[in-house]
Amino acid sequence: MKHFPLKLSLFLNYFLFASLLNSVGTVIFQVQRNFGVSPAGASVLEACKDLSIAVTSFFVAAWLLRIGYKRAMLGALGVIGVVCAAMPFLASFWATKLLFVATGVCFGVMKVSVFATLGLVAREPHEHASLMSFLESCFMLGVLAAYFLFSAFVDDAAPASTAWFRVYFVLAGVAFVAAALLWSVPVDESAVHGSAAACGGGLADMLRLALSPLVLVFTASVFIYVLTEQAIMSWLPTFNHTVLHLPAVLSVQMASILAGSTAAGRFAAGWLLRKLSWATVLTVCLAAAAALVLVALPLAGAAHGPITGWRTAPLAAFIFPLIGVFLAPIYPTLNSLVLSSLDPSRHAAMAGLIVIGSALGGTCGSLITGRVFQAYGGQTAFYLSLVPIGLLGACVLVIRWMKRPVAQ
């Protein structure tokens, strides 16, 4: 496979940061048990990572061509490795805030660099879409692995135990291995340095892109998608524990169904998008996601016996996370549509806009859900996901209409 070592390195980098970023749901759950933090107070962890992603992406996208993609990724891996190695010694709520700020900063650098590097190894739109879908699948595998990795360190019998912080020794080791692999792989960035000067590069190019009507709609769609995904993903362990009354470890483990179904959905989307139009796939997926919310959430109130493991868990704990299958194709498809329509020298700027939209969407989704969760309960909080799902459907129709004259 052409560029295989580089692709493997990108997938490992994405896998690591997926594990760190999406452990926020587990960490939100654990800090409530360890330190008595309220749901609204714990939801600030999502803002720590997402706002730092947004701010970092804004500046990194403007300067990335000067820094260099490989150098930027190596720096991000080194910093996050050191922070993870320090976490078991700092075990506290403020340390988790520091961790997610560092994770957000490093992921902002990593994601913009990875998206821009994809343009160097996949020049054709269908190849780019396939690689993007596979990359996002690896991201979800990282999310899935995190649920089981973190749950292995959680002590059900001792809610105040901070022994779970030792999981960060493992993640620090992965970061240093990923840095060594990337350091050993050559990355040819000469194709973008020449054309960068022609288009102006940096902040000015990013602002010009942001003013394009099509890019505005794409960025808004990404914002709404991540708002929906993070609202569910960050609060699913808490929903499992407080609404379905699952034990703590099982609450974290069963939240992995969402990550697994999302990974499966993205692998399936890679095949479906070769057979059907992107608009048809996304429209059907959004309709199915809304239908699943309306079917699964009423089951959460059904009576059930004592829950001791996966076999005795209520039906809602299995069905609702399957929403990941239908939400999965939306994010990589939208990103690939807009990136593959631009010159590779503009991918860093566009990736910056995507990451900023994603980060702000994640922050808003978690903060809103945390407050609704506290005021009205978990079922109401998850019913509200129908609103952004409807807005995404409208965005798909608008993008299809805007791209039609170009296609003709």
Keywords:
408 residues; mainly alpha
Walk me through this protein's architecture.
With 408 residues, the chain is mainly alpha-helical. The protein contains 19 helices and no strands. The chain has helices at 4-21, 24-35, 39-42, 44-67, 69-90, 93-121, 125-151, 167-184, 190-199, 202-210, 213-242, 248-275, 278-296, 315-319, 323-327, 330-339, 347-376, 378-383, 386-407. Helix 1 (4-21) crosses helix 7 (125-151), helix 7 (125-151) runs antiparallel to helix 16 and helix 11 runs antiparallel to helix 19 (386-407). It starts with a helix and ends with a helix.
SSE layout and pairings?
Layout: H1 4-21, H2 24-35, H3 39-42, H4 44-67, H5 69-90, H6 93-121, H7 125-151, H8 167-184, H9 190-199, H10 202-210, H11 213-242, H12 248-275, H13 278-296, H14 315-319, H15 323-327, H16 330-339, H17 347-376, H18 378-383, H19 386-407
Helix pairs in contact: 1-6, 1-7, 1-8, 2-11, 4-6, 4-10, 4-17, 5-6, 5-8, 6-17, 7-12, 7-16, 10-17, 11-12, 11-16, 11-17, 11-19, 13-19
